[in-house]
Amino acid sequence: MSFFKKLFNTVSEPKEEKVLPWQALTDVNQLNEIEKRSESKTQLVFKHSTRCGISRMVMNQFVSMYDADSNADLYYLDLLNFRDVSNEVGYKFQVMHQSPQLLVIRNGATVAHASHGAINELDLNRFL
After folding, report:
1. Roughly what angle, to the nearest 10 degrees, separates helices 83-93 and 30-37?
2. I need a surface site. Which of 27, 40, 45, 111 has the fewest CB within 10 A?
């Protein structure tokens, strides 16, 4: 094999992507279930804008850092396709809308929330 063929014909293993146990948040009725479940288990809601590069970057960082063995339910909200759900999240859990945004819900209330880069600085272990 020639030098250039060796140099440019490298075969690399595909990188295995980490998959989180997301539950799609697509209906406002799910918010009552999240509130109820938060009485015994931390509920996390990740609001994501599928058209925003910053939101995608923050979500990728969150996925890579998140401990999938955490004792929390994890919800994914595509706020562009489910705007009514996103609006209701703000009303029900008393947070101003931002994107991307992570809400930590315990005992029926938001105990922490963060947006943009601050999402990945939030110490979730304090709430689990």
Report:
1. 40
2. 40
For 6, residues 6+ apart whose C-beta sits below 8 A from its C-beta are: none
User: What is the CATH code of the structural domain delimited by 19-127?
Assistant: 3.40.30.10
The predicted-structure confidence for 55-76, as pLDDT tens digits, reads as follows 999 999 999 999 878 889 999 9
User: CA–CA separation, 29 vs 60, rounded Å?
Assistant: 28
Q: For residue 35, give Cα distances in angstroms to 2, 14, 73.
A: 64, 39, 12
Give residue 124's identity as a one-letter amino acid code.
L
Mean pLDDT (the chain) is: 88
pTM (predicted TM-score): 0.84
* CA angle in degrees (0–180, nearest 5) for 50-18-96: 40
Question: Whole-angstrom Cα distance, residue 108 to residue 106?
Answer: 5
